[in-house]
Amino acid sequence: MSMDPAELADRLGRWSAGRGPLYLLLAARLRRLVDEGELPSGTTLPPDRALASVLAVGRGTVVAAYDQLRLEGRISRRQGSGTRVAGPPRPGPRESTGAPVFLHLLEPRDDDVILLACAAPSAPPAMLLTAYERALPQLATVTSDIGYHPSGHWRLRRAVADHYTGRGVPTGPGQVLVTNGGQQALSLLARAFVEPGGTVLVEAPTYPGALEAFREQTTSLEALPVGLDGFEARVRTSDRRLELAYLVSTHHNPTGAVLPSLARRRLVAAAAAASVPLIDDEILAHLALPGQETPPPLAAFGETVISVGSLSKSVWGGLRIGWIRAPRPVIDRLARLRAVHDLGGNVTAQLAAAELLPHLETLCQDIAADRRARHDHLRAELARRLPQWQAPPVTGGQTLWVRLPRGDGDSFAQTALRHGVAVLPGSGLDASGGSREFIRIHFLAAPDTLTEAARRLATAWHAYGDGRDQGTPAPRSMAV
């Protein structure tokens, strides 16, 4: 297939927007088109002069961009046969990865390790089963629908829109994109907004899955304290281009912090003034402990906020339902991008989610007292067995952010694993390279399991403190 110069120019869009040499900007945009499949392998690209003429640049700019992609293996150039797309590079398999370990810690295990690294409900609630019972008969009424819904099924988009409207954020279905969980939502946003060389602003520490979604698109992550404290000064004094800013404003992962209303208002105003897209990860927002009030959603303070939600933490991870709430042009752009990779999610699951979503607050309130009891139980066990550890209480969420009195979380995580407990070392959650003295553990397990986990952690800590297990860093595959 030969690509017409004008057609390629249309696909390139505003490729020259940004800083840096034109050939690098052109190479970056072509790279994304190749990697995302919009320029399939084998496609013949326009000759240097023809593309340069359409783009109104010198021929040397196109030659240099093509040469850059040739060196990366994404295109091939042979005299007489033109320039062809070779496809994205195919690196060989790696033994380990810095990405969240969805296979290492999420796959079923047949050993006796207690998993305190991954926080999510351990079984679907009865309310979910009821939702499926109500959803299944709806399939019998489906006609003239082939089942592909890249933006999400209209029933669920309407339910998510009503959910936000009920929380004080007026929303229409056209402002909602349904995704296969929150992780896909973050990956789509990273692909849509982050250009190679661009900078993403994150909290330190933060959710490691978000860090890896952004690292897939850029190596430039810049960290600010939790709540993006210092954001206004950052955008005022730095000349580095910001592609995105990301935070978990309510029941922060991993610290449990909640951003106050005044700070929310100031942050949203500053991001809008600087034209920086602001992503608010709301996946834990509904998980307040009893008696705790939370501020309005970040999106209530400005229409430009992009909200990410999911039912994985509040209902069950196996449901794989998430969403993005954003201005209509953003949703339309994300839907086009998703269609390249994924023609839509499971319709039955979306119908069940639409039945369940109006009752989400009730479900979260019903389990809040039990989560409080488990939170208190784990903290009491840690205080009894490991009084040197600092494990502050939280007002919501699912995890404790524990400071170790000595050593580091990476080497202790390896020791803990040898003693039958998987914990998450803090360094994998911190793009600044800090938080090495922390570990993250969840409190969702049954009380007797939490008691046994605390006993094993104490045994591991004594071995670690005796020096028998210090100095061996945990593998990067512990980060999830």
From TrEMBL:
Map out region (Disordered) in residue numbers.
77-97
Residue ranges of the HTH gntR-type domain? 20-88
Extract the InterPro entries matched here.
Aminotransferase_I/II_large (IPR004839), HTH_trans_reg/aminotransferase (IPR051446), PyrdxlP-dep_Trfase (IPR015424), PyrdxlP-dep_Trfase_major (IPR015421), Tscrpt_reg_HTH_GntR (IPR000524), WH-like_DNA-bd_sf (IPR036388), WH_DNA-bd_sf (IPR036390)
The UniProt GO MF terms for this protein read: DNA binding; DNA-binding transcription factor activity; pyridoxal phosphate binding
Pfam families the record matches: Aminotran_1_2, GntR
Alphabetically sorted, this entry's keywords are: DNA-binding, Pyridoxal phosphate, Transcription, Transcription regulation
Q: Does the keyword Transcription apply?
A: yes
Matches recorded under Gene3D superfamilies? Type I PLP-dependent aspartate aminotransferase-like (Major domain), Winged helix-like DNA-binding domain superfamily/Winged helix DNA-binding domain
Q: Which family does it belong to?
A: In the C-terminal section; belongs to the class-I pyridoxal-phosphate-dependent aminotransferase family.
Name used for this protein in its record:
DNA-binding transcriptional MocR family regulator
